[in-house]
Design goal:
Elements: E1 3-7, H1 12-23, E2 27-32, H2 40-49, E3 54-57, H3 63-73, E4 79-84, H4 91-96, H5 98-118, E5 123-129, H6 152-170, E6 175-181, E7 183-185, H7 204-212, E8 219-222, E9 234-235, E10 237-239, H8 240-257, E11 261-265, E12 271-272, H9 273-284, E13 290-293, E14 302-303, H10 308-314, H11 322-335
Parallel strand pairs: 1-2, 1-4, 2-3, 4-5, 5-6, 6-11, 7-10, 8-13, 9-14
Antiparallel strand pairs: 9-12
Helix pairs in contact: 1-2, 1-8, 5-6, 7-9, 7-11, 9-11
Bound molecules: nicotinamide-adenine-dinucleotide and UDP-4-deoxy-4-formamido-beta-L-arabinopyranose.
């Protein structure tokens, strides 16, 4: 079976994808600098998956660290494709430190592509985001909707897509799966890996999880006058294990079809902030107290995917619902109240 290199391998989405790839029979090499993750993830992968993680600690902007990964891959017949997850991802922080985001996210992608070329590997899966649609003009969002960035983080995803498209145009050996994730949430069903944000969570579900476990008093609901059924923001939450399986499907597509692919990875179902808080309350057996607060700058009323193309092209669709997302998040949060360091 093919060997896959994961960058950002100990991060939230990559760690779940690592398990999905092993389940599907792939060999995996991981690289991460731990800039936003913990080495304990490797112990948990060993424990859940019963395998020895093949891992290089290093920054993807460091060519020698990437060369070590390709070297490690030789024991499995050589790296066949790369899934490039490594990036900084906090929208607010990207506005404060735009140059750091360009350096890490664009510099990192460039370095990964250069290493791939050095080693004769041309299949890459790129972690893109629904953020490339900016404020959507119509819903649900299809892949040919207009693209625009509304913050430096989003700009790095847009520029990343453009850079890869240009590469494809110049050299037909490159094939890219552009995966535009909607709102990844939840955790592995084992409860042993999950999302472990540093500091105050920016995203809704990790914040709600910390309210549920008693680390925060209440959820601040950012705006209740949006043009949505209950006035609170609507998003397309997708279980991280469904998302992980989407990467397996994308790798199969690249290998079988030998062509590039751009797909939304979402469920197609929008839920409001209050829907999610209510569902989480049921999952943890305790109502989530909410306080209405002003809108958060830059937020849109509603954002959800049309996931039809992902199904038609790769036969993939999300299987897990909002209840699974909350139950699995709660299992992770309640048994690891302080994340990996607890
Ligand atoms: P994460 O922060 O948990 O994972 C990213 C990993 O990359 C971390 O482990 C971090 O240490 C590592 N990393 C960052 N820069 C690095 C570098 N230069 N060298 C080596 N390692 C580096 O985030 P995540 O939520 O798992 O996101 C994974 C990818 O998916 C990112 O590209 C992100 O932009 C994208 N994405 C995430 C979301 C989301 O809401 N979580 C949505 C859409 C897209
Ligand atoms: C969801 C909803 C908030 C926190 C972000 C990035 C996007 C992508 C996914 C990477 C909104 C509301 C939130 C809170 C709240 N990441 N909310 N109280 O903004 O859709 O997307 O993560 O690519 O680029 O922008 O996700 O989880 O932050 O917010 O009321 O404490 O929850 O206003 O309506 P968002 P989110």
């Amino acid at each position: 079976m093919a060997c896959i290199l994961l960058t950002g391998a100990t991060g939230y989405i990559a760690s779940h994808t690592w398990l999905a790839l092993k389940d599907a029979g792939y060999d995996v090499i991981g690289v991460d600098s731990y800039v936003n993750s913990s080495p304990i993830v490797l112990n948990r992968l060993r424990e859940i998956g019963g395998f020895e993680p093949q891992f290089v600690q290093g920054d993807v902007r460091d060519a020698s660290a990437l060369d070590r990964c390709f070297e490690l891959g030789k024991q499995f017949g050589g790296v066949r494709a790369v899934i490039h997850f490594a990036a900084l991802k906090a929208v607010g922080e990207s506005v404060e430190r735009p140059l750091d985001y360009f350096e890490n996210n664009i510099g990192g992608l460039l370095s990964v592509c250069q290493a791939m070329k050095r080693h004769g590997v041309y299949d890459v899966v790129f972690s893109s985001s629904a953020t490339v649609y900016g404020k959507p003009e119509s819903l649900p969002i299809t892949e040919n909707a207009p693209l625009r960035a509304t913050n430096p983080y989003g700009q790095t995803k847009l520029m990343g897509e453009e850079m890869l498209r240009e590469l494809e145009r110049c050299d037909a050996r490159w094939h890219v799966a552009y995966l535009r994730y909607f709102n990844p949430v939840g955790a592995h069903a084992s409860g042993r890996i999950g999302e472990d944000p540093r500091g105050v969570p920016n995203n809704l579900m990790p914040y709600v999880a910390q309210v549920a476990v008693g680390k925060r008093e209440h959820l601040n609901v950012f705006g209740n006058d949006y043009d949505t059924p209950d006035g609170t923001g609507v998003r397309d939450y997708i279980h991280v294990c469904d998302l992980a399986e989407g990467h397996v499907a994308a790798l199969r597509y690249l290998a079988d079809k030998g062509q590039s692919l751009t797909v939304n990875l979402g469920t197609g179902q929008g839920y409001s902030v209050l829907d999610l808080a209510r569902a989480y309350g049921q999952a943890c057996g305790r109502e989530i107290p909410v306080v209405f607060a002003p809108r958060r700058p830059g937020d849109v009323d509603a954002c959800y995917a049309d996931p039809t193309h992902a199904f038609n092209a790769m036969g993939w669709k999300a299987r897990r619902g909002l209840n699974d997302m909350c139950v699995d998040s709660w299992r992770w949060q309640s048994t690891n109240p302080n994340g990996f360091e607890g």
